[in-house]
Amino acid sequence: MDKASTDSYPDRFMWGVSTAAYQIEGAVTEDGRGPSVWDTFCAEPGKVADGGSGAVACDHYHRYREDVALMRELGVDAYRFSIAWPRVVPGGTGEVNAAGLDFYDRLVDELCEAGITPVPTLFHWDTPQALEDRGGWLVRDTAYHFADYAASVAGRLGDRIDQWITINEPREVTLLGYALGVHAPGRTGMFEALPAAHHQLLGHGLAVQALRSAGAGQVGIAVSHSPTWSAGPGAEDTEAAAAFDTLNNWLFADPLLTGAYPADFAELMPVQDGDLAAIGARLDWYGVNYYGPTRVGAGSGESDEVDGVPVPEGLPFSFPPIEDVPQTGFGWPVVPGGLTEMLLTLRERYGDRLPPVMITENGCSYADAPDAAGRILDRRRIDYLDAHLAAMRDAMDKGVDVHGYFLWSLLDNFEWAAGFEQRFGLVHVDYESQARTPKESFHWYARHIAGSRG
Ligand code: FCB
User: Domain residues for 299?
Assistant: First the structure.
């Protein structure tokens, strides 16, 4: 029996699926695309678990018609995909590559014909390598180059696109990419990574202006959020957890939703006049990516890994595992109630300054393979989705205004430093043949969407 009832979703609740360019497109040298930081990172031995890369991935660049047909079968209202900056501006700045935009033009037309609303993200981690060579997000100019690129994309696709997402997960890019170096661009600057957070947020703010001047209807951002749970009741643990919570959640959400950095960080950020007004400009909706909570305590050295990310020595935090809950194939704890908690916390912290929320990502990896009959019975994914949708509904019943849910992900795909080992898709991909096979969860989600429409 499903937990997540399909009745009484608000009218026009938006059902969708999410993907990202580097994780599915492949075709990294076609039609004038320039290299991105992820091409460079994957080429370095030892950086990606199985030595994989996005060079071919799901070959979506050539198979997008088949993938749109799958979405049509699924019955989603909307598709969240990302546009590869290095396809559109191969050098990061300067000349716009019309052939790169042509691909998105074809994709958007295909979506519109299928009655699916395109919701592009302009930056999902694939910074043009040429810009990284000049400092990437550590330097302020990158924010301006990003806004120029946003304007170019809006100029070409804006006639068919009403909803935009500027950037995806500035926290991951800052912490995993620039502080810890486990993601591209592989820099290990620790606290010196902070300017990368500010410049991404500034890039977001400038892109919001560029998109609105080009006539955009609705603009949002996708931010990852994770409730932070103290390891114990003592003051040392609760203080450590509060400090980590600031770094993990409020460093990004506060400037976006209140126009100010948390006090502990304000002095550390390279803020110039006008930046915070741009960053804090009212959004049409706020995107939340949710995968699970984080347990944090004082002290260090007790845990060498959290959610698959190595914890460097010398940090004033420990990350005891969350026990007694199931885990996904990635080892991430399955805690649906954390989604309710996170949404209620956002609502409480920001009140009316919180615009309507979109769940821009939520999903799980399990390595279920086809059985003898070729079916993929991914019961654990169905249970996960059912429980998380019920948790989202719970937050909605308690007053959080959620306008849509985008499941991560349509297809199994290239999961960054974890390579192809982690499968998040509703659709199984055989990377040898590129055959797509809808899993049982695909049919479950299709029924849930259909049921919600009565
Ligand atoms: C998020 C990323 C997305 C995907 C999921 C599993 O952090 O935005 O690209 O990798 O995790």
Answer: 14-452
